[in-house]
Amino acid sequence: MKIGLTYDLRADYLKLGYTLEETAEFDKESTIKGIEQTIQKFGHKTVRIGNANSLMKELLSGKTWDMVFNISEGLYGEGRESLVPALLDAYKIPYVFSGPVTLGISLNKAFAKQIIRDNGINTPEFHVVYQLSDIQKVDLQYPLFAKPISEGTGKGIDSKSFIISKEELYKVCTNLLTKFNQPVLVEEYLPGREFTVGVLGTGENAFVPGAMEIKYNKNTHNFYSYDNKENYEAHITYSNVTGDMLNKCEEMALSVWKALNCLDGGRVDLKIDRFGKISFIEVNPLAGLNPVTSDLPILCGLNNFSYKQIIGEILKSAINRNFIQKNNENYNTLQSGA
Questions:
Q1: Sheet with 236-240, edge to edge strand ranges
Q2: Average pLDDT over residues 38-46
Q3: How far apart are alpha carbons 301 and 126 in whole angstroms?
Q4: What is the mean pLDDT of the chain?
Q5: 8 Å CB contact between 13 and 50
Q6: pLDDT of the residue at 234
Q7: Which of 33, 168, 173, 233 has its CA at a distance of 20 to 30 angstroms from the CA of residue 64?
Q8: What share of the chain is helix, strand, coil (3-state, %, to 5)?
Q9: ω before 297 within 30° of 0 (cis)?
Q10: What is the side-by-side strand order in the sheet with 184-188?
C-alpha cells in the first residue's frame, strides 16, 4: 500500500520567523521519521507530502495515494486541523484519524464540552468570554481556570491561568484575547489528580492501551502549561494508572471518544473535581506521535505497549473503516496487531 504522510514540520516554520510557542503543535523531523519507518516495517511504501499547501499542489497535479497518514495541525483559524481531511474527503482519498467535523469541534474546547455535557459526562462548569464585557456574565465558583478556546500543547497557559478574583479574570482575559485573537474558555478549576488516557481504534472496537497520571514536581505550577509540556523532564513525573482508577479513566475516555466520533487513535485528558469525581478536560483526536517525547507513546510505554503496536493499531483501524485492500498481504499482519 502507498501511504502519504501529511504533517507540519516545526523547523520549516521556525525558519520563516515563527516563534517556538507559535509552532508548539508542529512536529520534529524525528516524529516524521519515526512514523515513516514504523509504517514501512508493516510492508507499506511511504511518500512524504508535507503540509496543507503541499497537499493542495500534489492533488492539483493529479497525485494520489492508497491512504494518507495525517498529523497536520495547520496554522490559522479554528478549522486548521480540519483542512487536510476535508481536502482528502473532496478527492475521496482515505486517511488516518478523525474527520474534519470531529477535529473542528474538538479544537473548540467549548463546543466539545457542550457535546460531552449533553451526553451526561462530567465536565466543569464553564463560560466563554468573546469580549471583555462577557466577564460580567461569568457566574462560576472561584478559583477559575482560563485558556484560549482553540489552542493545544498548553499554549496560552501559565501561572496566571489560575484565577482567584474578578480582577485577575479581567487581566488574564485581556491578555489572552489580545495575544491569541480568539475567545477565552473560563471554567471552574479542577483541584485533584490529573490523567491523560490513550485510546486506539474506532467505535465499539476502540480500547484503552493505558493511562498515566501527571504529577508536578516541587516548585512547578500544578497544571499542564506550555512550559511544563516543553520541558516535561524537569517539571513533571509520569506514572501509569492501575486498578479502580484505571477503570474509571477507561470508562470516561471511551465514552468521550464515542460521543465525539473520534477515530483510530488519540488521547483524552481528565482530572478530579472538587467533589472527588473524575471530570473531562479535553480530547486530542490528533495526538502527538513522537516516539520519545509525546504523551501517547509515553503512556503506552509505561503500560508495555510499544510504538510499533500504536502505529499498527492506528493503521488497522483506518483500514477496517475504509475497507482498503482487504486481501493485501499485509492486512492480516495489521489485523493481528503485530
A1: 236-240, 207-216, 194-200, 265-272, 278-284
A2: 97
A3: 34
A4: 92
A5: no
A6: 77
A7: 33
A8: 40, 20, 40
A9: no
A10: 126-129, 184-188, 144-148, 162-163
258-268 tens-digit pLDDT: 999 999 999 99
Assess contact for 184 and 147: CB atoms under 8 A: yes
The full set of domains in the chain, from first to last, is 2-97 (3.40.50.20), 125-188 (3.30.1490.20), 194-305 (3.30.470.20)
Q: Which of 40, 63, 49 is nearest to 9 (CA)?
A: 49
Phi, psi (degrees; rounded to nearest 5) at 181:
50, 45
Q: Which H helix or E strand runs over 31?
A: helix 29-41
Region 262-278 average pLDDT: 97
Amino acid (one-letter) located at 212: M
Alpha-carbon radius of gyration of the chain = 20
Global pTM?
0.91
3-state secondary structure of 176: helix
Sign, CA dihedral 200-205-210-214, equals positive
Query: For the segment 119-153, what is each residue's pLDDT rounded down to a tens digit?
Result: 999 999 999 999 999 999 999 999 999 999 998 87
3-state SS, residue 101: helix
